[in-house]
Write a structure and sequence with these properties.
The protein is an alpha/beta fold. It contains 13 helices and 12 strands. It has one domain: NAD(P)-binding Rossmann-like Domain (Rossmann fold), CATH 3.40.50.720. The radius of gyration is 20 Å and the shape is globular. The structure holds nicotinamide-adenine-dinucleotide and 2'deoxy-thymidine-5'-diphospho-alpha-D-glucose. Nicotinamide-adenine-dinucleotide (NAD) binds next to helix 1, helix 4, strand 5 and strand 7.
Length: about 350
């Protein structure tokens, strides 16, 4: 079996659902169920004995030791993190605790477990660290896309905490020989994406007739990847990635934010037209994010060359599926928009 951390969040839940659709190998899913974790994402697995959910914190060493001893997983796939840049600006401590201390705790527990394994199991064990392109910092127009050897230049508390975790993972491989692989992925989108992030926020705000808050001039560029493509890349790296290597994952889909917002408005105009006219009327420019990275772009040639991975979705197919998913899952959106969510929206957007 495999141990997944953060498997009730956006990418983690898509990964668990995809894993069990492709394999019969069971999953232990360790997740603290912060505001970003939602068991409803996994409701289709109710009664499926291949999935065992454990509510707990990755900083809890005794809990992690106990899970490893009881279930003896052949791999750990580590998604659990605080993931939202804006939240990291308002409150960085949670990012240090989970992303740095939590990754350290998992590495130490994995090291103790792995060192005691018999030789054949030891050779097959994997610690797969799921990370982000934000560790590389910001590109200027015309700069080549991030390769795996790009220097680390994180600019936000979030990306700094993820960079720290990447360095710990690297060091545990070089110093202790722990069999690790790391993936650095670009911006994901798709089902179960929490509506604090750009794409789901724009969809749910538009449907509610609320402003669509575009930071700064809206010309910041991100490289968008449909979430199930990220999950298939992780499966490929876990199965065939070289030990100690990092692999960049991206969709070859660089787009300025304002273009994303216009695309969402156009799709909603087609799929759920509004009596008052186009959703474009809701676009509102607001104050920029402090330290806002201008451009990310991933060079994903290494994973294609070594493992034959390429994304299956184009941006056009992925964004249409995503908008349709949110139209079909109004109950999921209502469920995650709890009191805590409303407080966050008030705090983040009130002063802009
Ligand atoms: P998310 O915020 O949607 O989910 C994070 C999950 O981790 C939640 O279920 C939460 O409950 C859980 N969690 C948080 N702190 C925990 C703790 N201390 N112990 C146990 N569980 C805890 O995040 P996501 O967008 O699904 O991102 C998953 C991973 O992928 C993160 O490591 C993130 O850095 C990375 N990543 C995300 C993106 C993206 O576009 N979303 C892109 C590249 C990499
Ligand atoms: O690049 C990978 C990263 O992508 C992941 O590591 C992070 O976990 C994930 O949250 C995401 O980070 P971003 O900061 O790029 O995503 P976010 O959706 O918050 O913002 C995307 C862009 O949209 C960014 O330039 C800021 C802008 N934005 C965002 C929000 C929430 C707006 O213009 N308005 C908004 O209301």
């Amino acid at each position: 079996m495999i141990l997944v951390t953060g498997g009730a969040g956006f990418i983690g839940s898509n990964f668990v659902l995809g894993w069990l659709a492709h394999h019969d190998e069971p999953v232990i899913n360790l997740d603290a169920l912060t505001y970003a974790g939602n068991l409803r994402n996994l409701s289709s697995l109710q009664g499926d004995t291949r999935h065992r959910f454990v509510r707990g914190d990755i900083t809890d060493r005794a809990l992690v030791d106990g899970l490893l001893a009881e279930h003896r997983p052949r791999a750990i796939v580590h998604f659990a993190a605080e993931s939202h840049v804006d939240r990291s600006i308002h409150g960085p401590l949670a990012f240090i605790k989970t992303n740095v201390d939590g990754t350290y705790t998992l590495l130490e527990a994995a090291r103790a477990f792995w060192q005691a394994l018999p030789a054949d199991e030891k050779a097959g064990f994997r610690f797969h660290h799921v990370s982000t392109d934000e560790v590389y910092g910001s590109l200027r127009p015309g700069d080549p896309a991030f390769t795996e050897s790009h220097p680390y230049e994180p600019n936000s508390p979030y990306s700094a905490s993820k960079a720290a975790s990447d360095h710990l993972v690297r060091a545990w491989h070089h110093t202790y020989g722990l069999p690790v692989v790391t993936t650095n992925c670009s911006n994901n989108y798709g089902p179960y994406h929490f509506p604090e992030k750009l794409i789901p926020l724009m969809i749910v705000n538009a449907l509610a007739g609320k402003p669509l808050p575009v930071y700064g001039d809206g010309q910041q560029i991100r490289d968008w990847l449909y979430v199930t493509d990220h999950c298939s890349a992780i499966r490929a790296v876990l199965a065939r990635g070289r030990l100690g290597e990092t692999y960049n994952i991206g969709g070859w889909n660089e787009k300025p934010n304002i273009e994303i917002v216009h695309t969402i408005c156009a799709l909603l105009d087609e799929l759920r037209p509004h009596a008052e006219g186009s959703y474009q009327r809701l676009v509102t420019y607001v104050a920029d994010r402090p330290g806002h990275d201008r451009r990310y772009a991933i060079d994903a040639r290494k994973i294609e060359r070594e493992l034959g991975w390429r994304p299956a979705e184009t941006f056009e197919t992925g964004i249409r599926k995503t908008v349709q998913w949110y139209l079909d899952h109004a109950d999921w959106v209502a469920d995650v928009q709890s009191g805590g969510y409303r407080e966050w929206v008030d705090r983040n957007y009130a002063q802009r």
